[in-house]
Amino acid sequence: MCFMNDEDFWLKSGSGQPFVLFKQSFNRPIALPKIDEQIAIAEVLSDMDAELAALDAEAEKARTIKQGMMQNLLTGKVRLV
């Protein structure tokens, strides 16, 4: 948001470390998207979460297959020619 970098939001003291002025920041209005836009954003994020979960499952399956193949090679059940 734009007001996060506003001079009224941060107080600069003699120590050189800025800190948040909570009293002033709580009195500022917060601009939120309309509810239909929030719903659309939530749907996109949910779809992304589902895609990430599917990719994690695929990666875990590939790791399991690789581990099994390595075990077969190490035990001599399978030989490379």
Automatic annotation (TrEMBL):
<dbReference type="InterPro" id="IPR044946">
    <property type="entry name" value="Restrct_endonuc_typeI_TRD_sf"/>
</dbReference>
<keyword id="KW-0238">DNA-binding</keyword>
<dbReference type="GO" id="GO:0003677">
    <property type="term" value="F:DNA binding"/>
</dbReference>
<protein>
    <recommendedName>
        <fullName>Type I restriction enzyme, S subunit</fullName>
    </recommendedName>
</protein>
<keyword id="KW-0680">Restriction system</keyword>
<dbReference type="GO" id="GO:0009307">
    <property type="term" value="P:DNA restriction-modification system"/>
</dbReference>
